[in-house]
Design goal:
The chain has about 220 residues and is of the alpha+beta class. The protein is built from five helices and ten strands; from the N terminus they run E-H-H-E-E-E-E-E-E-H-E-E-H-E-H. The protein is globular and about 65 Å long.
Amino acid sequence: MTTAPPESRDRIYRSPMALIGGFLLLVIIGWLGIDAVTSGTGRTPWLALAALILIVPLVSAFTLRPAVFANNDRLRIRNPFRVIVVPWGEVETLRSSYSNEVLTKSGTKYQLWSIPVSLRGRKKAARQTARQAAGGRPGRGLGMFGGGMRMDAFGGRESVPEGPTRAETDKIMDDLRELLEARGKADTSQGEVTVRWAYEIAGPAVTGAILLTILLALT
């Protein structure tokens, strides 16, 4: 009896600055909202509660939620409102312009929200290259959101290979391209692209928007 090979562990790419910013925003929103709910009068507590139901999922969706998970078989993209699973065999290319994107063989493109392009990081890397060419000491380029952080499936950190002439998010894209080149034709990397909508985010947000609209209309 032939057993399937074990699935490789995910490499996880997220934006540390987005995580920090999202956490701080949620703390501030929670503090203001709970204070309004507990201390407000009239319709204020209900308006604050509806606003919390609307705002908290949206802030989480755009800051804490985005991540890219990559292993030997597929690329899983967790964007604010969708989760896209793309086997490496279905990836046509990974490209970077004003945003980092994956283009499938069917012609569909998906943006990688957790790996933002940093023009500032690219300019810094270019300056480092110039300094290195002049005999200076190369530094480390950082992306607009602090670069990407790679973690394995068990929460351990892995260092992203560094070079003096590349911004952090560009290095991450290079890493993903190497995986695509190495695994694109593997038998375990074939399959169909799947897309799942994040109803756990959209549901509460829509509910909060409806409640807030009704309460404002009755005010």
